[in-house]
Amino acid sequence: MSPALSDLPLRKITRVIESLSFRYVRTTGSHAVYRHPDRRAVVIPHHATVKRGTLASILRQAGIKPGEFRELLN
Q: Which of 21, 44, 54, 67 is deepest in the core (most CB within 10 A)?
């Protein structure tokens, strides 16, 4: 994974996830659950900054590649 994707603010990640048609469903503890109309789910921790490995997991859950994510950040 590219260093450009490490340690991103939570707000940027949720903005990209929501732009991919994922919608907020609920919060369990300190984790928000977003669901896509095709029933895929993404769990995002409520931390000020999301670390590189956690971001990789979020991207796998969403079914997008790091390159696609990088394009959507801009």
A: 44
pTM, to two decimals = 0.89
Q: Which residues contact 62 (CB under 8 A, 6 or more apart)?
A: 17, 20, 22, 36, 40, 42
Q: HEC states along the chain? A: CCHHHCCEEHHHHHHHHHHCCCEEEEEECCEEEEECCCCCEEEEECCCEECHHHHHHHHHHHCCCHHHHHHHHC
Q: What per-residue confidence (pLDDT) applies to 42?
A: 98
Each residue of 6-48: pLDDT tens digit?
A: 789 999 999 999 999 999 999 999 999 999 999 999 999 999 9
Q: Tokens 């696609």 — which residue?
A: 68
